[in-house]
UniProtKB/TrEMBL annotation, chain A:
<dbReference type="InterPro" id="IPR035889">
    <property type="entry name" value="Light-harvesting_complex"/>
</dbReference>
<dbReference type="GO" id="GO:0030077">
    <property type="term" value="C:plasma membrane light-harvesting complex"/>
</dbReference>
<dbReference type="InterPro" id="IPR000066">
    <property type="entry name" value="Antenna_a/b"/>
</dbReference>
<keyword id="KW-0812">Transmembrane</keyword>
<dbReference type="Pfam" id="PF00556">
    <property type="entry name" value="LHC"/>
</dbReference>
<keyword id="KW-0437">Light-harvesting polypeptide</keyword>
<dbReference type="InterPro" id="IPR018332">
    <property type="entry name" value="Antenna_alpha"/>
</dbReference>
<keyword id="KW-0076">Bacteriochlorophyll</keyword>
<dbReference type="GO" id="GO:0042314">
    <property type="term" value="F:bacteriochlorophyll binding"/>
</dbReference>
UniProtKB/TrEMBL annotation, chain B:
<keyword id="KW-0460">Magnesium</keyword>
<dbReference type="InterPro" id="IPR002362">
    <property type="entry name" value="LHB-1/5"/>
</dbReference>
<dbReference type="GO" id="GO:0019684">
    <property type="term" value="P:photosynthesis, light reaction"/>
</dbReference>
<dbReference type="GO" id="GO:0042314">
    <property type="term" value="F:bacteriochlorophyll binding"/>
</dbReference>
<keyword id="KW-0042">Antenna complex</keyword>
<feature type="binding site" description="axial binding residue">
    <location>
        <position position="36"/>
    </location>
    <ligand>
        <name>a bacteriochlorophyll</name>
    </ligand>
</feature>
<keyword id="KW-0472">Membrane</keyword>
<keyword id="KW-0148">Chlorophyll</keyword>
<dbReference type="GO" id="GO:0046872">
    <property type="term" value="F:metal ion binding"/>
</dbReference>
Amino acid sequence: MSDVAKPKNPEDDWKIWLVVNPATWLMPILLTVLAVAIAVHWVVFAVGLGWGA
Amino acid sequence: MAEQSLSGLTDQQAKEFHEQFKVTYTAFVGLAALAHLFVIAANPWW
């Protein structure tokens, strides 16, 4: 296992799509980003940093 | 069966998709940065 070439990023970043098929995983990825954004906004508003704080 | 990637995409397809992914992600980060600047201008949180 140790003879596997180590990736050099960011130039090898594209190779992620040789493992993760975007036709299957793009929407789950985007929905996860949306969930994180909603969670962050929820906390920010919950701690009182919302509008007119 | 020729050498196939785990995802089934060819190198060409992966590179092509990644170019678009970078564009969209850059736009997302740009918009988020802009939104944060508006919040900082209106109501800094520190």
